[in-house]
Amino acid sequence: MSAILKEPALEIRPLQDEDLQQVIEIERQSYPHPWTQIIFGDCLQAGYSCWVCGRRGIIEAYGILSVAVGESHLLNICVRPESRQQGIGRKMLRHLVSVARRHEAEVIFLEVRISNTTARALYEDEGFNELGNRRDYYPAGDSREDALILARVL
Known about the structure:
By secondary structure, the protein is α+β, with helices and mostly antiparallel strands.
């Protein structure tokens, strides 16, 4: 018998209304221009594929995916700041790719800030390729920042 306590496994499950408070707090901690509760609620109401990843009632990450007509679009993926660099974002991303495949999407698209080198490295490592960029896509203080458009064939 070991005296070392084993951390419970991460569980990925559909996002529910009761999760929104934690999700919005993670969003606010992570982005200077976070999504609002209305935006998350609209995603749920529209039937987007919305997921959380956590353990012991604490959400560590979430992801929002839209799927239609053979295409999927990763709209939002985020990991709680203190839980980053532990493979949780990769786990969530792989889950969302799996969901897109189950919905018979042939490709998954996303946008990422040019300055977000950590996310860009993850996406590249997971097989995403650069298609182009969207000028002035993201708010950045008093200015705007370009987004890279990435895609992965499924």
